[in-house]
Amino acid sequence: MTLLGLTVVIAVVNLAVGYAAAVLLGFGPPTFRDAWSALGFGNRGRLEEPDLLWLQKASAQPVAALLDGFEQETTELQPDIEPYDEDMAELLLPDQPEYWDLNEKYVETSILKLNIAMIKSGLRTQEIDMRLRAAAGRTDPETIRRCLEELKEVCQSYLEQHREAAERFAARISELGQLRSLGEEIELANLEQAAQLETTLSNLQHMDFESDLEAANRRLLSEIHNLRVARHWLRDMQEAAFLAVARYEGRLPSIERQLWHDPLTRLRSRIGLEVALAEWWKQGRHQTRQITGLLLDLDSFGKVNEKYGSLIGDRVLVHVAEWIKKHASPADLVGRFTGESFLLMMPDVGPRAAIKHAEQFRQTLEKMLFRTGEETFRLTATGAVVEVRPEDTDEQVLRRLQETLREAKRAGRNRIFFHNGRQPEPVEAPNLGAEQTEIVL
Predict the structure, then answer these.
(1) Whole-model pTM?
(2) What's the distance, CA 138 to chain centroid?
């Protein structure tokens, strides 16, 4: 080989290694795989922009302009996904302390212990829920009696554990400094949770279960549903508070890895999402790369849990998570943000591609028919798309996504809204040709 040829080979190798290192560290232009797909030689299995030549900022364009040139594409959700039990999955072995760093010197530990009490309660109530649903139509007195007594026991046990944990937290509110008002909100929410438990116990004590067994079955299921709604609302609130306190105290990067993932969907949990975003911002990715955020929320999902039980609801969430994961890029940050909402942070993707991705999901879900036994139901979703600005903090981006989602919900649901830099506005999207699919749960 000539000296010139050897020099060229060394130069190419150095360039490739440097490029790979830059991409791996989260900096630089799109990956070779992105470029390969953009040139039409590959398909990443996700919805991409027609080209990746750094589009103009979306805030300077009307939403309609972002949607020009959409291609008609269809996707199918794979129905052969193994479902997981949410409460079983989220029970991160609280009886084995080695799985937790429950250091009492950290005030957020008290919030975590409140969640453990809720998880244990959720486990047992879901088991009772499943037995009642299995007996529906042929309910016998023994089933009702046993479920009633077990539900009373669950509520009483949860109330005692919750009160103990809530009292420990209330005693430490003064340690929160500037976040004291947040601590007071949690204290109020804990009082409301205790009131819900006391109301349920009172209702159970005074119910007539002898005259109509099927009515008794339905009433017990209704009480379980009310407990589930209250528990999930408090869980989401406390998780947000846990993150706020950890961020304020500078302990966000040291949160245990066991809390980073949602065992039900196998995606990142909200804690895992925010830990990763904090690292992105520390690396300065939001200043060196184009990033667009997408928040998707299932509409009226509580009705699915109420009518079919949380096990069926869990299976739906697993299918939805699988679709989102399947159509995301390996570079995307994907996770379950709250109970029925999912967050995607997409680097090297502009608003146009993100809006298309959100619309493809919305229209695909709208065409899905979920089947459980002889019954079928459909779901819709509402979404928010936000472009990250170089001056944004990660907290500002999340707040803007939530604000945009609330506006979309207020406007009627089953739609996508885009934040144009000044305010949220609706997306008028063409029909992307999603096909009818049936999902057996």
Answers:
(1) 0.74
(2) 37
